[in-house]
User: Fold these one by one.
Assistant:
Number 1:
Amino acid sequence: MALLGLAEINIRKRALHAAIPQLQRAMRAQARRVEAPFQLALVYRMLRRDDEARAMLEEIVGQFPAFTPACMAYADLLMTDAPPSPQRALEQYEAVLTVDPSLQRAQAGAAASRLRLGLFADASRDFKMLLKSKPNDPHLTFLLGTALHWQGSYAEAVTAYKTAINSLPAASPLLPVRLWNLRVAYLAQHGVYPGNLEPRYRIASLPVAAKAPNQFTDIAEHVGVAKLDRGRGVAWADFNGDGDLDLFSVGIQTQHGLFLARNDRFLSTASAAGLNDARGGWAAVSADYDGDGDIDLYVTRDAWEGAATNSLYNNDGTGHFVDVATAAGVDDPDDSFTAAWGDVDGDGWLDLYVADGITGSGAANKLYINDGKGSFADQAVLRAAADGSNSLGVAFGDYDGNGDLDLYVANVADPNRLLRNDGTQFNDVAEATGVSRPINGSYVPFFFDSDNDGDLDLFVSAMAYYEDFVTSATTGSRGHRSRSYLYLNEDNSTFREYAAELGIARAFGSMGAGFGDVDNDGNIDIYLANGGPIMPRFEPNALFVRRNDGYVDVAADAGVDNLGKGHGVAFADYDADGDLDLYVGHGGHYPGDLWKNSLYRNEGTQAQWIHIVLTGHPPNHNAIGAQARIYSGDRSQIAQVHSGGGFGSTDSFALEFGLGNRNRVERVEIRWPSGRKEQYGPFDANQVIRITEPEQK
């Protein structure tokens, strides 16, 4: 026991490393006792050596199932560590309750586990039982409100949220979130807010929703694409070569969705197409990597859940796929998050960049260079692109206008990287160009021309705390610690941050983001797919339409403010009516946080438009990396063909331009991925222009 006593002294002194050998010796000396291994597990936990702590606690609870402190520590670890395991945590809490049925902390843990598993009625029952002895507990009443909210019992949820509010001091920092959740539940119950809600339960200040220039209708259920899962990346493409846009969708550890267009609906064909892969995925980026004229798919895994191999699904030309990732050398066994396609070395073959290391594993990002023979080699180190941070989002774009693709990498806890492509390798110029922020909470980036000045600007979304989102949403305040950044390209070499000036600096939990001119006025708009991992977070998506003086959120009026914890965002004119429609992958972090994906059909405006479909010189058939600049009256616009960006998703490869009231495009300038430049036009508005790259001389 002396060794154990010495170790406990060192633990109190925070000399944790000194305590480890003492505890290990105590374990060997007293192999049948639980105290030393339990203390060692706690030390590992304090040192963030979580794998060792988990293994130690698992061994202890197997050997000493009646030792409640270890059983509770193990259950709590299963609830909080990555990847979380609420099912195993529930089993552990239930085991504790067989030993001590009155242990309220175990009862609360079991109730929280059931909430995360989607067992909402059971969770509500458990929280109600706990509240019999603690009727005004501010945390338990809030969780009861959450469980009832998920259950669809909105009237009861409103009552529980009121109790949670009553249980807090007037100046409590927890109050805004409780008031917000009460608002969401009250709206669900009554369809209006504040209605007859007592003044003390109302949010004191709430900005008036802006009027949308056009409306959207969620038709996912009607056309057969309302996939229910923890939705992640999505991709639009013609996967079977029939000329219609099809849809691919992935979710965490669930079957993929492949939806082929059939008249006005979609046919679910994942199983028949060879895509019945229950491992699911995170990113869904499509490209014709082998140059055979059909669209292939790359899917990443397993991000926050840990390490797992990725898939490269090769399309045989008929819409049937085979996973060739291992044979092609792109299976990447690390904790991959998103990915993007682009020809970084200018040889015509599409290369692949993958963001790794999100769990803090230290895994470096991969840059897979295509050899043109069906195989890839990771040249991230060779080309100075092997970022070893906690990388999350990636996007290609030629920001400096020199004809090759540069790369932006968003890191969740480190400065972001802007990797300028110098032809043979990359050089990180993020600090020099002023685009390294946000430092904490960066999520997904994309390149686009925000100000219509002919160069690519940069948007980076961020994950804000729920409290910050609520404060920002209810007061309109800006400048929070984690917010989106909008960098405008000033001279193809530096950027200036304009988010606050342009009205897009509010705090959001923006896990997904995408861009497109949804009202065809000639300005590019931004869609944010919002949320966060906790079950009580109910945050609507946002649609910022660009007006001359900045951006305005019109999501509520436009009908695209879904609460479903959005991730994948992909735009396409799937119904060929001249306006951009939107598919969003919805779903949260935990197994019970399930939402249906949405297909928002754009109901249109009277504005004019023109779409340009480029066919590149083989092997880059879809001309990924090509830029088109159009001139119409007194305005010019630029767009780039891309695959990836945002939450690892793929817009249609068409370049869709809104023209406002202009009915003609005088000139179209194309810079092909090969570097060749061509001019075309004039063209009348309201048509799809198909341009094929001329044969090289």
Number 2:
Amino acid sequence: MSVEFHPDNPIVRLCMQGMRLEEQGKLEEAAIHFLQGWDEATNDFERFLIAWFNARVQLKASQRIAWYEKALELAEAVGDDAVQSAFPSLHNNLSKCYEEVGDPEKAAMHQELATASVSQPADKGPFYHGTKAQLNIGDLLTAGRISNYQSDLLMNHIYFTALPNGAGLAAALSPGEGPERVYIVEPMGNFEDDPNVTNLKFPGNPTRSYRSTEPLKIIGEATTWQRTTPEQIQRIRDRFAGKKDDIIN
């Protein structure tokens, strides 16, 4: 199935509310949010996300196993680029849980599966890059640009996404005074999941965000994406202010 992650999705919002409660040490309240999400999820991708979070707040390893097994089954059913990078973490978590309950055979099996499921992204795009620069078809975008999040940080990779709305956000955050632009790009070499978002707050790479040390070739320009408000941009800038070391460069 084809899925698109969006922060305004009701299940995603419940996940984020639950995460904030987790950070405050309110695990019981977080668990209530995650169970509500499970009851209200409408498709396998939403159920996959919320199963992952339900697993995290379980106190018993046997209960974590039940939820992680559900998440694994749902990720396999989704079969989308957004979930592929979650498989190593899912199997690693299951391996630890089975070791905790005294089942070394299943622990070893999931550890092997975790190693076997590590792979380069197979996403075929189309891909997008957001900026305020005025560029032309055929131009090459290269690494070595200033970070959208830290004005004194030079990035070792060029970043892009398979979601136009994500590229639109990057355009809004980018330096410069020109209009926001979202270009359709073609990677000219290998690329990897963006480690700044993959398997961190959410399992896998739901925003389908990637990076490369090789150039991106501009092959077109998108005209439709969801605009970001100035208030949203300022909140993001405030969140990253002074956190240079938090960016994996």
Number 3:
Amino acid sequence: MNHEAGMDARQVQVFFLVVSFIYIYPFVHADYAYIDDSWRSLLLADDAWRNQGRILLEFLHRVLTFSSVTVNIFPLPLFISTAAMAWAMSRLTLHYFPQPQIPACLVVLPLLCNPFFLGNLSYQYDGPGMLLALVALVYGITFNAQTALMRWLVATVLIAIALSLYQLTITVFIGLCAVEFVAGVKEVRQAKAVLSQLGQRVLQLIGGAVLYFCTAYQFVIDHRGDFQITGPERQHIVIEKMLFTLDKVSLLSTAGNGLVCLALLTTAALGYLMLSKNIWNMPSRTAGKSIVAILYIGVIPVLILCIPGAMLVVAEPNLDARNFIGFAGGLVFVFLLSYEALGRLGYSLRWLLIVPVLCMFSLCYAYGQVLVAKKELESAMGHYLAYDLSSNKAFATIKGFYFIGPMTGENWLPRAHGAITHAPILRYFLSNSSVLLRIEFLPRLGINNARPGRREMLDASLVPVVDGKFYQIYVTGDKGYIVMKEITDSEDFTEPLPFQ
């Protein structure tokens, strides 16, 4: 029997504020300029966000920096968006549970603690905007007006706002609609009311997409997100991307947390079966119950498809962790079902949800250390290169250098080898776009005369002036070429040396 009093709205907000700021601390501590951050901080963004249909992200940075350029003011945007996210999660918790206690709050935490969302939070510029997109969607879900028209208007605008910040967050809205549908089954509401609410969500989704298309989408020039998979290979590509997605999801389970994952999925499956019985107890006709039952069965495949979302059918071939933002909806679904099953087995058992939450926090902090390792190695590489360029007399008369990066993405990180070995998903979070050294890092070290180059520009007959472990430097006339090498050395410090 439950003898604990529920928390009020203020207490719920404080809980989420504290927990959310604890969760994002590793990113503030690392302070790592991740991929796009390196060139945005040099004010090279121009209209990049606008050209991708994310014009509100551009507007957001202009407002926060009081300028028309991408000045780096990290971590202020992250603090603001995290506070907004905490408020949004508190609203969603109260939407699901009128008198919540801490275990109920844990059900909603995966919105922020989605492991794949670590890839989004890695970006100092884009990450806060992605958080605010989720905030807009949550407010769209939780907005409650007396008239359906007002609910539709507000939700439509909020969905368009979310799309104008980060388009892929729409899968989170779909996932939360599925969770809301399951919550209606849990509460044994009338089938007509559950179906009506779902229908309203569909109309809101359509309205938001149309509004976005008529506004921010009109600025799109970068068409890498267009639906361009056509022809006989379409089915093969979609299946291949889906299998790739499921493979990456499976990496979340390791030898250390395998039992936790198994227990969470088992209790969720039990909760799913328990709630299915509620369908036939609904005060409705058989036809309505049958429709609800069919949709209830369809919730799981919908949530699975929401993980890659639109990435299944767009031209962009790369699937990075940040693209799987829709996994949050599936996690909330799993946590809700586990919460229900554990509660029926024994109220105090709901506190066991703390264990998978701690797993997500542990993964976040481990990834934070990986970012620190990446930052340290990148800094070392930059200093090696800066020393060679500034101390070698052969480069004294060089007017400029062409920087040629490695042919493949490199996440060679000896310091993080142990963590990545035991949690391979950490390497995936880094993305293949995260190379050993980016040209945009060099201005920090006073090397301001390097520009991007291509291997085709380099004369094969040239002999390197500097031939180091990580790069070669060539000279021809008043030009120089910095060529990064492919790293083939082992990351494992404990591996025996190849000699006695």
